[in-house]
Specification:
The protein has 787 residues and is an alpha+beta fold. Helix content is 59%, strand content 8%.
Length: 787
């Protein structure tokens, strides 16, 4: 990678060298509509705004960033670790009713007592266990304490007789329960007389997961920042230029933390959203700053003064950044249609960080560039290692030759690439959806150890029982008959209850298998179908999973339609074509197949679990594929906009479809690759997390980004566009007129004359009249002259 590595938004493109002549198809971020010639371009309102008082702009930004640090401090402590349930589902209603009426029905704290070589029925062990249970019952914030030594329930005793459980419920919401756990756990875990006590249960799993994520996020940032800076120095050469994208990213991250902190005052936000904030804050901010700083430096190299160079940069690269941020925000906004706050949290964080990154790139970055001027090229560290004169093409010629090769063999590349991506995605056909549990944590985590002991050594699935809430007056006989019907179901191991309170009662139903396996999920439907003379509702881990899957399935078509329709519209505004938006959506979706196939093969089936250090649960958490699709699709569109805007600009200049594709890839191939590698580094840093879901998100999206940049953009897009030919740019009359009036594009050069005759290779035989201040060279010769 080098400064001009295939991403030469060079002087003269976009109309001219420092000004941009010709017409413009729509408003630019700087408020201008093109125009101007020579070194002093006509400056639009936005350019005047961001360059009028650059020191004041940066000072205000510094103050706002400092305020964001204050507001966003401690945000992780206010975030939740749940959010997978549908708040309107039957299971959620039953859970809340049981918490209110029968708090002991849903224990969230488990103490695993290990008697070593002794039996849990040994008198000394039993006496100590009863003492611990009595002490726990007297604690503030604890209710519903029960144990094997109190009830004699075989479900609370291990099969080998050496371990047994004390169950309790910590009252309050997630934050209150976590506070109680922090207060109590140190005084209960460890050696206590003849027993060893370990602390587990859902509240311990959630709390340990939240703590682990905060620690891992700090480590990921420490990995990502220096590596990213090194890569930026390799791309730009100048240490000064390399620091600018990093600064934009840090501002976006700190600003988003403040937004999330404010949102916690009005809604629940998942702690997992912090990972997306870091990844997108660094990744997208660096993408946008790369594009803008690169263009600014090239305008300076062409002789433009700083203010004029900023004007051209905002009208060209700035417009592309604006479009890119909108497409990414649209993909992330689709998660708002889902009821689970886990998914909605990623929409909050993602939209905020994308818009803040774009705003910093379009407001603060131009102000900094205005102050720096030619000093943006200072501290060229690459000259220490460079021998001889640098390659003037910066490697762009390599991308141009690749594009030519792909288009010469377009059918072969299109079929082979598509087939390869489909094959990589085949493992996803065997996906099994589950819920996040203790196996998300490292194998040495205490709550994971407790749950693993329960899975391996206890009958049924203690803590994974299904609860049936019965509401309405009923007699003992009616309760007994209903209990008999439940016990007769094939997936039921045991039924306990009823426990009656007024006109309400509940039954505890223990499945034969694990808490969320397919049998337990079938049992949920069977329980809800059992005839009863009173109202019933079912909850429990499996019931929450079933309801979550239904909620996602119900909303998924709406989310997909929203992403597709808005993306089609935005890409149409950019290109004026009917076919290109369809290609963009379909090829972007195809680029994600490798990610989904890898997720199932690695994380569900457990391949590479050793090297990657995680425990496979045999399923994929239900919301993760939705999240990964929205994030990866948005990032793919980010790179797609970069490529398409440059192809469109060249096509507007020459009318030569094939040359436009070749030239677009030549000019953006290196930039897209550099941006993808940097973003992948950030995502891999996130993927070093010890929490399996975060590891899956980071590594999966990193794979998707690299596949999109290096396979889809480099091979599939030019092959498909070569096959569709000049028809690629067709639009019916009404849509063409709509685009002429409202459409936006990076280029500012005139479009080819609509009546130009074409020869078989697509090159116009007539050349549009040049606009004053521009040099229009026919077809390939002109492009090579500028290349």
């Amino acid at each position: 990678m080098s400064e001009v590595d295939g991403a030469d938004d060079g002087p003269g493109e976009g109309g001219n060298q420092g000004g941009g002549g010709g017409t413009d198809s729509g408003p630019a971020p700087d408020g201008g509509t093109g125009g101007g010639t020579g070194g002093e371009a006509r400056l639009g309102g936005w350019t005047r705004f961001v360059t009028a008082r650059p020191r004041l702009s940066l000072l205000v930004a510094l103050l706002l960033t400092a305020l964001a640090v204050v507001v966003g401090s401690g945000v992780a402590d206010r975030l939740g670790s749940g959010g997978w349930e549908d708040p309107t589902a039957q299971s959620t209603y039953a859970t809340r009713a049981l918490e209110r009426e029968f708090p002991a029905s849903q224990p969230n704290l488990l103490l695993l007592l290990d008697a070593g070589r002794s039996s849990v029925d040994d008198p000394a062990v039993a006496a100590e266990a009863r003492r611990i249970a009595a002490r726990l019952a007297a604690e503030r914030g604890v209710t519903g304490v029960g144990s094997y030594w109190q009830s004699g329930s075989p479900a609370l005793r291990a099969g080998d007789g050496h371990e047994a459980l004390i169950a309790a419920r910590l009252t309050g919401d997630e934050t209150a329960a976590a506070g109680t756990l922090d207060r109590l756990a140190p005084s209960y875990r460890g050696k206590s007389g003849p027993v060893e006590v370990r602390v587990g249960g859902p509240v311990a799993v959630r709390h340990e997961m939240q703590t682990t994520i905060k620690e891992d996020l700090t480590r990921a940032e420490m990995i990502a920042l220096p590596v990213t800076l090194l890569l930026l120095v390799m791309v730009f050469g100048s240490a000064v230029a390399a620091l600018l994208p990093l600064g934009v990213g840090i501002i976006a991250i700190l600003g988003t933390n403040a937004v999330l902190r404010a949102l916690t005052e009005v809604t629940d936000v998942s702690v997992f959203a912090l990972n997306l904030t870091t990844a997108l804050g660094l990744g997208l901010a660096i993408d946008y700053a790369l594009f803008i700083v690169r263009r600014f430096r090239e305008e300076l190299a062409g002789g433009a003064p700083p203010r004029a160079a900023i004007g051209v940069t905002l009208r060209t690269a700035g417009r592309t950044v604006l479009f890119s941020s909108l497409t990414v925000a649209v993909s992330l906004a689709a998660m708002l249609v889902f009821p689970q706050y886990f998914l909605r949290s990623f929409a909050y964080a993602g939209i905020a960080v994308v818009l803040l990154a774009a705003a910093a790139a379009l407001i603060l970055l131009p102000a900094a560039l205005m102050l720096l001027g030619d000093r943006v090229n200072s501290l060229d560290l690459r000259r220490l290692f460079r021998r001889g004169r640098p390659d003037p093409t910066g490697g762009g010629a390599v991308w141009g030759r690749m594009a030519s090769l792909v288009m010469r063999r377009a059918p072969l590349f299109a079929v082979a690439t598509t087939a390869g991506l489909v094959v990589l995605g085949l493992p996803f056909l065997g996906v099994k959806f589950g819920t996040a549990d203790d196996r998300q944590l490292p194998s040495g985590a205490e709550s994971h150890i407790v749950q693993q002991h329960i899975r391996d050594g206890f009958p049924g699935s203690p803590g994974g029982a299904l609860e049936v809430l019965a509401e309405g007056s009923a007699t003992e006989t009616e309760y007994a008959r209903y209990k008999e019907r439940i016990a007769a179901l094939p997936e039921v191991l045991r039924v306990d209850g009823p426990l009656v309170k007024g006109d309400a009662a509940y039954f505890s139903v223990l499945p034969k298998g694990e808490a969320v396996d397919e049998g337990a999920q079938r049992l949920v439907g069977e329980l809800r179908a059992v005839d009863a003379p009173f109202d019933t509702s079912v909850t429990g881990t499996a019931a929450v999973l079933v309801d979550s899957k239904h909620a996602i399935a119900d909303q998924l078509p709406w989310a997909g339609a929203f992403i597709a329709v808005v993306t089609l519209f935005l890409v149409f505004l950019l290109t004026g074509s009917v076919l290109i938006p369809l290609q963009a959506v379909l090829l972007n979706a195809l680029s994600l197949t490798a990610m989904f196939g890898a997720v199932v093969w690695v994380f569900q089936d457990g391949h590479l679990s050793g090297p990657l250090d995680f425990t496979s649960s045999g399923s994929i958490e239900t919301t993760l594929p939705v999240l990964m699709f929205c994030v990866a699709f948005g990032l793919s569109m980010d790179y797609g906009v970069f490529l398409l805007s440059r192809i469109k600009e060249e096509y507007d200049h020459t009318g030569d479809h094939r040359e436009a594709v070749r030239f677009g890839l030549q000019r953006t191939g290196g930039l897209i690759t550099a941006a993808a590698v940097i973003l992948a580094v950030v995502m891999v840093a996130i993927g070093t997390s010890r929490v399996a879901n975060t590891k899956m998100l980071g590594l999966g999206v990193a794979l998707a980004v690299l596949m999109d940049a290096m396979v889809v953009r480099s091979l599939l897009v030019p092959a498909v566009m070569r096959l569709t030919g000049r028809a690629t740019w067709w639009a019916p009359g009404p849509l063409r007129r709509f685009h002429d009036r409202f459409g936006l594009s990076e280029g500012e050069a005139p479009k080819p004359a609509p009546d130009a005759e074409t020869v078989p290779d697509g090159t116009p035989e007539t050349v549009p009249e040049p606009v004053p201040g521009t040099a229009v060279v026919p077809g390939r010769d002109r492009a090579e002259a500028r290349g």
